[in-house]
Amino acid sequence: MLSRTAENLYWIARYMERADTAARLLEVGSRISLIPTAHGYRSEWDSLLQATGMAAGFAAKYGDPVQRNLESWLFFDRDNPSSVASCITAARENGRIVRTALTTQVWDALNTAFQELKQLEREERSRLDLSRLTDWVMRHAAMLRGAIDATLLRNDGFNFLNIGYYLERGDNTARLLDVKYYVLLPRVEFVGSGLDNYQWTTLLRAMGAHRAFHWAYGGEVTAAKIAHFLILNPQSPRSLITCVGGIANHLARIAKAYGRETPVQARAGDMLAGLEGETVERVFEEGLHEYLTRFIGEAAALGHAVHEAYFSGEMR
Amino acid sequence: MGKSARGFGVDSIGRRDGFDEMTGTGGDLRQPYARLQDWVQAMPVELRSLKQAEAEALFRRIGITFAVYGEGGDPDRLIPFDMFPRVFSAAEWARLERGIKQRARALNAFLVDVYGRGEIVRAGRIPSRLVYRNEAYEKEVAGFVPPKGVYSHIVGIDIVRTGPDRFHVLEDNCRTPSGVSYMLESREIMMRMFPDLFRENRIEPVDNYSEVLRRTLASVAPLKCDGDPNVVILTPGHYNSAYYEHSLLADLMGVDLVEGQDLFVEGEYVYARTTEGPKRVDVIYRRIDDAFLDPLCFRPDSMVGVPGLMDVYRSGGVSICSAPGAGVADDKAVYTYVPEMVRFYLGEEPLLENVQTWQCGKAEDLAYVLDRLPELVVKEVHGSGGYGMLVGPKASREEVERFRALLTADPGNYIAQPTLALSTVPTFVEEGVAPRHVDLRPYCLVGERIELVPGGLTRVALKEGSLVVNSSQGGGVKDTWVLAE
Question: Residue B265's closest CA among B301, B310, B225?
């Protein structure tokens, strides 16, 4: 297929997943800020923005992190390329370009999200409560996902879409996990405190994994269990290993369909093997933040390699 | 008048003399519309508005929103769809078809000639300056004969009707005529909404258009192409007002819809960037203007073209449809000479009439035009989209005087035509059904063979008495039927 078409499909998935994450982030931030802490909610919002790479843009536009402004920034603000509104618009625009590569249901899902977004933007802000906004985003992200799974042809386009999903999701899981790290670990005395647990739980809740976690692990919520769940557990739909496994799987299908491998398959294979051989102890030994930072870098490099191999259209 | 006036001006005579395609001039029901009368009479008012809403919803869902002739405006705007079809009998169509194909043949013969030996100019049948000084004449392709000797592969000929047997060509479109998606989608929607109509009337299908188009494009693959030709559609991008049409055609033909950035030139060929690496391209159906095709050859600031494309083209590595330079056959001054082309190249008498046209560059024509300015339609020779146009009977005195000054200053830049009493077709309006003026654009395909799908785009002026069918001026579209024998 045309490289640009493949790239558009890939970005539909990435933007939609990113919108989903922006909404979850908003929820994590709001919940955490409801709990009084030694340093107030301001600095926590700040570290949250830091972790997601959105701090500079926010500070330039709004200055101090005030809840209302944060909601605008993360949800509605078109100046923030990662806001829900920016992502949904970009996803739909990418969809419009490749309309013919999509089924009616997939296009409807994209288009409906966009049309409803325009309605939300016209509503008075005071009437929009946060949980309604985040639910709305997650619902539309899920509808798109469902339409793709239920109706799209299992061809190379489907594989590129899924690579986009998994890549973005892996990156976002790592970032959300890192948010927790940023918020918490600078104050060592909080480890194991009620606040610590509350924050971990919030994180799980935001990832829609609260119940799943308890089913899988039971007992006390600990940093080690959660790190295992979100990094190394192949049962967790958002874990890094699930995401990298998904990427490797779809890359393998592409290689099979095209009858040749590119360097990107080997790279994904290495990443997956690394995760499979990993233990939580070693992750904490390296430092969770350092480990996640390294992962985010590797995922970006993998994305770049996908681009080189398939989207430039020049690899022979 | 601004952009309002593209098309054919205003009916100075009024409807009392007009020809209605359903009731003729005398009010007797004409045969092709016989069954439609029962249909419309049997339709309750509520059903009608229900169906109208359904049609609109379908159009919106398909996402077919564009300006037919690149008139600009809101890209998400819907063009009104009128459910009352426009009908031609088999005999009427057979005549039209012969005339359209004849004209398409002559136009292509002219193009090959003027980029070759220029016989028609040497023979004194058309003034040399109109050809070689024409802005649309591409010196870059002089001496080049495209595969199968075809320059214009999709010829859109705009036709109006003034009587049972009188059809006039308003203008020719030899470059990249748009609007065919409306022909296809209008039919789809009519068939979905009124299946009974299609059982009762024997209507020639149009949905093989994409197949014929694909075959036509493949038939002009360059000599260097050794396998099954790889055809692509080149679009300026998704912000273009006709993007929907580009993607529809690509989808129906099963070919890639590419932008300039998807193509690159290497060695003697053009390649598309694909996920499996570079893929050679043999035929490009381009929906961008000549000027933007290749920044190395034409406009250096073009962002939508392919650098080096013209070199590959001229060395026979790729075909471009329509061929660069085809525009010289379709401007308004050359238009006057199309009947001459038919006689000169084909040795036949033209089957379709031109509208009488005065060349203001000629002294005697100019004198006549200046004398009768308030009755005439005046157009810029190179104008398109209705810019720089006077519709005498609808214009204010100041406007007429302004044009008088323009004409006197630069007469060669203008032509003038009489205002025509265009035919009408019954159309659903607020109060019921009423006659409204229409035009027709059929799409003639020229490759190894010349083919014409029985149908076309019928545009209708929805305002009472209006002759302006532009969508920006309250124009709509209708399904166009050709009845089987």
Answer: B310
